[in-house]
Request: fold
Amino acid sequence: MVLFGQFLEILIGGLLSGVLYSLVALGFVLIFKASGVFNFAQGAMVLLAGLALVRSLDLLVANGFPFWTAIILGLVFAGIIMAVTAWLVERFVLGPLVNQDGLTLFMSTIGATFVLEGASQMIFGSDVYPLRLFPTDAWFLFESSFPGGILVNKLDVWGGLIAGILVAGLAIFFQRTKTGRALRAVADDHAAAQSVGIPISWIWFVVWLVAGLVALVAATVWGTKLGVQFSITFLALKALPVLIIGGFTSIPGAIVGGLIVGAGEKLAEGFLGPHIGGGIEYWFAYVLALAVLLVRPQGLFGERIIERI
Amino acid sequence: MLSRRLLFAAAVVSGVGAVTPASAQNEQFIPMLSYRTGAYAVNGVPFANGMHDYYMMINERDGGINGVKLLVEECETGYATDKGVECYERLKGKGPTGAAFVNPLSTGITFALTEKTAADKIPIITMGYGRADSKNGAVFAYNFPLLGTYWSAADIAIQHVAKELGGADKLKGKKISLVYHDSPYGKEPIPTLEVLAKKHGFEFTPIPVTHPGVEQKSQWLAIRQNRPDYVLLWGWGVMNGTAVKEAAAVAYPRDKMIGVWWSGAEPDVTPAGDQAAGYKALMLQHGAGKYAVHGDVEKHVYAKGKGLSEPAKVGEVLYNRGLVNAMLGVEAIRKAQEKFGKKPLKGEEVRWGLENLDLSAARLKELGFEGMMKPVKISCADHEGARDGRVMQWDGKAWKVISDWYTANQEVTEPIVKDVSAKYAADKKIEPRDCSKAS
Reply:
């Protein structure tokens, strides 16, 4: 019973952690789905959004603004920063590269990563900034059945709820709105989309803006968990196996991939780790991703690409 | 704040972090490996600021060391071993006499540089970190793990646990876990803790956390299940704050956690807010607070607008550590000048200064470090020089010293030092020096 309780606790904790990875992975999926670009800068965007939010929040609170007013104004400020970033990326990075191949666009996002990381720390600081938007204590469930109960962290549950709302909202955006359909058309073929009158500059601005806002949401949760600091950019590496498993073009895939990675790595660390020295969860996620690649190269929910030769 | 960052950027770009114009032939070059970017910048920045400000103060207040100005150039390592080696290779030959010494600020970089620095005859100062076996100067002539190795730290931590429990005999049957950064740094205390576990009869469980340590849920759920009596924390950067938060999430008492001296600074506890209250950490002698030396730094550096830190952070734990680290290097050069002349010195000459460094209580008072640290005396056989520590506790707002001084028990650490350093000497075909003949 104790072992089962431990298994259940690690499984639930892992699933919820996986949802937090999905929050970051969603930003990657959005840009890839809409523009065919693998955006290496997504982690840096989470950092930028988090720093803009927490620094403005601190400033507003220090100047006597009520906490909730400061949060709203801080979110608006961070949203504006992400909009400016989206415009700058479109204007100076991607715009000049329209119709170039995917590898060129990918390389350009690597450059954008370093610029965003450096600029955000230069402007907002490189310290660790506490952010307390969600509760971080825990529930202890089923205490009568398991000694000590099953621990469930409230922050993880909040992350799960936010991810659910985001997925629903993004699904509606892509399937039901004119802009969403235009985004999908651009992803299929830049030139063809332009030929039917879709303004590609505008579309790329919109998609980077939406990805920036998703990064802001991820920053609120991860910032509460870790404090806003440079290490948030490492979440991009946690999101990569999630994308490989779920598929680069599927929003539900990002969630399912996150659940698989979260549960898989936590169970491996908890039960396999002690027998082989521990510290395995970081690479175990990539083992899972490799296993999926062998069976379904496009990921569990990715679109199968069929090309005529 | 932005202007301070621009000042730093200008200093780094021009490669003259802490120097005023001087004759190129009368400058002592000091490479300064630092990390102001990356996952560990939150800890690296205050440390680097403390070092920079001390070197700057020596130039501004004293005109250098006996008239020899310090020429300091920072190099960003990002705490990455490859970049650290690159920085060393780029800077080791600069200045009229090459690098006086190198402070890698990383145990990983220390391991990578140990053979290179010996071949280049440049001392490597690793204050409170680095490889613990390098305490044996007979084998490691150029390594100086000043003020304390991780083996000393592990022994001090267990001494404090024993004191809290009511005596060393109470350790028997207790469970002590080590949550460590899965790197050469984090692994360093394991041999000593294994020896201590055998000696005192406690159950020791090492639990690794992968770099950078943003995700520790599995480790802390394991701790929740295992319920150790104490958890020792050997983390760095984001790992520390995350560990404290995860401990709170699984309701593990923070006052049963003891961090090493690299897990006990303000950035490690502030992200956790009230949840960090009660958390304890070892002190590498000093803690937070201002002493006489800070007055000189404020007068000669900050009053002239040349300091790199936010003024409110002057006196924080890692800033102070940077001051102490820089002071030990400066005093080694001063000592070496007594023998080799008041001129820029070569690395091997500064090595002699380090090995013969003897900072008495009176000298520490003159330097403005009275109350921050105890006297230090280095010798050929003992490149550590001192192995004293205390314990402090975070009360939610500030660190409070809660223990008397402990001295690491050499009966425990010395056999391990001898054993491991002898193996190193055999592997590398090093003929250990006869320390009775060292001068």
Notes: The first strand of chain B starts at residue 27 and ends at 34.
